[in-house]
């Protein structure tokens, strides 16, 4: 027998099993197209030149898609080979050798793989420009450039998916190499025994879920959120699998013990059927649940970040113009001269451009890291995410008065004090070898950035010499630390249109050359940068959400098809013993409803428990509004539930048609 015979037989097999292969190929095409598109964006010169952070995000996205592609294709391929076991066993009974069957499977994998790869790359090329324009719209940039790709991207895509389809082929060949033909003939119809309820697995489910939820709820430091987030995710994933495998069986067996409920036609059929096949169903339901949770978290979080861009800018840059002078080796006189001279220069420039300074604040300060213990400030040079120090900002009373329009006067041993925990009221504080009698400072003098990442405090002292004395004592404890000087911050707004403010920002930016120890940040200039980065986050989030949704479709479909073939014989027997079609339909509907509601309900619970740690992560971006996330979360849940409902309605019809 030549290769042409096996090739023709492979084509015929694909055609006869088109109910399984068409969804498999379509899903593979979608994933190939998405990876090719992400890889194209990753290597696009415009993206690389526009914002370096976008390249890093797309690298992460490409890794996620590649990982998901491996898992998804191997997972759905396992459904295909299960339905083909009887056919493969029949080949052996008819006299074909295992090497002949391997050739048939090779050609089947070759044709499906080539079709998926070619159509996927073509789809990526066709829709590439559309998605690229969408990306730049989200980045708030003009769309005056073209989408581009390269042969390197095509080769990278081809290499990845050739490897994945090769793994699937090796798995398929292994399924019959070590099995007897008679065993294969029963492979697709051989059911599982009724699973036993395992208290140990159920306990593990509670332990893993409790650990994941506990990490999320217990995180109080935003800097630790990123580190422990993935630990919590892994714990919840493990707990989800154990919960569906053990918890669902426990619930079903509890229902079965309720004789009044169980011994009725509808519950008897649905509960017994679900219990008999739950070990297989549990894995599919857990996969759908995890994918659903990923879609909700990914999309809602990235929408929140993009929608909260203005809030981020408002928190980080309350004023339109922000100038920082780094004291370094400047003397008090040099710092004060530069501090006053720059303020005059900014106002003069505004007047020359027919603008007016409307709001402003200016102060000199120095920040020290440490801890207050029993009224004593203990200096710390190390800053770790696990144990953040108190950041104490010290300013002179002269600048404090100017900030709030006060006329406070302080003796040499007096100071004003404010703590981010306003309940922390102190009467005395020793710092830098000096003891101060404290009075409360007006919170209006504190530059609030809307974030509560770490503990902060402000100390108002009589003059700059006190700050220098505190700094001398602070750095005397650290031989390897370079002493920092007193810095100054000048922030202000102006009148004018957006174009006038842009021109003014450009004029102020030119002053940096004359003040090398300072920096300038314009909110208008930073806005473009932030929309660029957050637009990339949104694009990546929606992209991955779409990927996980696409993954949900074939997993749900193949689960329904597999269960349909498994249950068809059982329902035919039920018809023969007298159950009418309406009763069978009602019991089937209740079973499908259970399958539909359970994964998405558990996914929503996962996301609700994930909110505390997600909220801490959002704080790192400058998002402090709970309302923004809750609105995004609610909208995404409703949208995904609708999409999932449509998916399940379609796949349920496939199930019912097979069963009948």
From TrEMBL:
* Localisation: Cell membrane
* Cellular compartments per GO CC: plasma membrane
Topology of the protein relative to the lipid bilayer: Multi-pass membrane protein
Q: Name one Pfam family in it.
A: FtsX
GO:BP terms for this protein?
A: transmembrane transport
Q: Does the keyword Transmembrane apply?
A: yes
Q: Which residues cross the membrane?
A: 21-42, 54-76, 109-132, 152-178, 199-219, 225-252, 284-307, 537-558, 592-614, 626-647
The protein's UniProt keywords, in alphabetical order, are:
Cell membrane, Membrane, Transmembrane, Transmembrane helix, Transport
Where is this chain primarily localised?
Answer: membrane
Domain of life, per the record?
Answer: Bacteria
Question: Which parts of the sequence belong to the ABC3 transporter permease C-terminal domain?
Answer: 61-177
Question: What family is it from?
Answer: Belongs to the ABC-4 integral membrane protein family.
Q: What name does the UniProt record give this protein?
A: ABC3 transporter permease C-terminal domain-containing protein
């Amino acid at each position: 027998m030549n290769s042409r015979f096996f090739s023709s037989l492979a084509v015929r097999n694909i055609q006869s099993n088109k109910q399984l292969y068409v969804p498999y190929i379509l899903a593979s095409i979608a994933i190939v197209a998405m990876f090719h598109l992400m890889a194209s964006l990753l290597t696009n010169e415009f993206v690389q030149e526009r914002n370096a952070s976008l390249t890093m995000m797309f690298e992460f996205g490409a890794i996620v898609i590649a990982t998901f592609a491996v898992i998804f294709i191997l997972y759905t391929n396992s459904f295909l080979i299960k339905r083909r076991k009887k056919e493969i066993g029949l080949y052996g009974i008819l006299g074909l050798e295992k090497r002949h069957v391997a050739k048939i499977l090779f050609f089947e994998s070759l044709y499906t793989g080539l079709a998926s790869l070619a159509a996927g790359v073509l789809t990526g090329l066709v829709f590439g420009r559309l998605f690229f324009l969408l990306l730049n719209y989200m980045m708030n940039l003009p769309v005056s450039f073209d989408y581009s790709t390269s042969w390197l991207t095509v080769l990278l895509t081809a290499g990845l998916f050739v490897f994945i389809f090769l793994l699937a082929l090796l798995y398929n060949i292994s399924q019959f190499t070590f099995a007897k033909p008679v065993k294969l003939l029963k492979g697709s119809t051989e059911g599982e025994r009724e699973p036993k309820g395992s208290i140990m697995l159920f306990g593990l489910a509670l332990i893993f879920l409790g650990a994941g939820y506990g990490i999320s709820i217990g995180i109080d430091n935003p800097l630790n959120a990123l580190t422990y987030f993935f630990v919590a995710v892994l714990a919840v994933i493990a707990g989800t699998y154990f919960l569906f495998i053990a918890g669902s069986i426990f619930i079903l067996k509890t229902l079965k013990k309720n004789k009044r409920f169980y011994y009725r036609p509808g519950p008897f059929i649905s509960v017994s059927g679900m219990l008999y096949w739950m070990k297989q169903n549990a894995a599919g339901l857990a996969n759908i649940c995890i994918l659903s949770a990923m879609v909700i978290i990914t999309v809602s979080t990235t929408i929140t970040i993009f929608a909260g861009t203005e809030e981020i800018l408002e928190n980080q840059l309350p004023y339109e113009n922000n100038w920082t002078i780094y004291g370094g080796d400047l003397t008090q006189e040099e710092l004060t001269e530069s501090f006053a001279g720059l303020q005059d220069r900014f106002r003069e420039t505004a007047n020359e451009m027919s603008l007016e300074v409307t709001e402003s604040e200016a102060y000199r300060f120095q920040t020290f890291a440490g801890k207050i213990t029993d009224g004593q400030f203990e200096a710390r040079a190390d800053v770790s995410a696990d144990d953040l120090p108190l950041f104490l900002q010290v300013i002179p009373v002269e600048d404090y008065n100017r900030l709030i329009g006060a006329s406070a006067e302080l003796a040499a041993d007096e100071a004003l004090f404010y703590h981010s925990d306003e309940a922390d009221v102190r009467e005395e504080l020793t710092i830098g070898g000096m003891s101060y009698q404290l009075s409360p400072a007006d919170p209006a003098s504190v530059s609030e950035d809307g974030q509560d990442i770490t503990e902060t405090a402000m100390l108002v002292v009589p003059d700059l010499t006190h700050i220098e004395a505190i700094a001398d004592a602070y750095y005397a404890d650290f031989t390897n630390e370079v002493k920092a000087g007193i810095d100054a911050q000048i922030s202000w707004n102006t009148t004018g249109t957006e174009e006038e403010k842009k021109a003014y920002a450009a004029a102020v930016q030119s002053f940096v050359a004359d003040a090398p120890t300072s920096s300038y940040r314009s909110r208008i200039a930073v806005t473009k940068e932030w929309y660029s980065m957050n637009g990339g986050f949104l694009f990546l989030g929606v992209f991955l959400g779409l990927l996980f949704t696409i993954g949900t479709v074939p997993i749900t479909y193949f689960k329904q098809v597999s269960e349909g073939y498994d249950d068809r014989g059982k329902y035919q027997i039920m018809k023969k013993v007298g159950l009418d079609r309406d009763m069978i339909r009602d019991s089937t509907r209740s079973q499908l409803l259970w399958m539909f509601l359970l994964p998405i309900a558990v996914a929503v619970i996962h996301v609700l428990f994930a909110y505390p740690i997600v909220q801490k992560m959002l704080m790192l971006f400058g998002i402090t509004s709970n309302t923004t996330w809750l609105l995004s979360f609610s909208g995404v849940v409703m949208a995904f539930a609708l999409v999932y409902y449509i998916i399940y309605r379609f796949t349920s019809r496939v199930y019912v048609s097979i069963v009948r």
